[in-house]
Amino acid sequence: MVLTIRYFAGAKAAAGVGDEQLTLPPESTVDDVLQLVRDRHGERLARVLTASSLLLDGIAVRDTRTPVAGGVELDVLPPFAGG
Fold first, then answer.
1. Where is the signal peptide (predicted)?
2. How many other C-beta atoms can be found within 10 angstroms of the C-beta atom of residue 15?
């Protein structure tokens, strides 16, 4: 199955890309996706992920054991500064 992960702000800078397509085995979870991108992009992105909010097809993910399906988007939203 294929999932699109989109990175915003500091996550985009840490990953070096704005988005990417990931091919995952069936029955993958958000945890599996996060581990794959940590392995792919290294410690800099791993640090950003610890403080980031996640949206799976626009819905906030609170439990990273949440299953993912093909064709969905996972957004990585690091904390934003501003007012």
1. none
2. 22
Residue 52: C-alpha distances to residues 9, 23, 32, 34, 55 (Å): 11, 22, 16, 11, 10
Angle at Cα 48 formed by Cα 53 and Cα 27, nearest 5°? 60
Q: Which of 61, 62, 65 is nearest to 74 (CA)?
A: 61
- Token output for 35: 């581990």
Q: Which CATH architecture has domain 2-66?
A: Roll (3.10)
Structure tokens at 18: 């704005």
Beta strands 19-23 and 53-56: pairing type?
unpaired
> Residue 51's pLDDT band (boundaries 50, 70, 90)?
very high
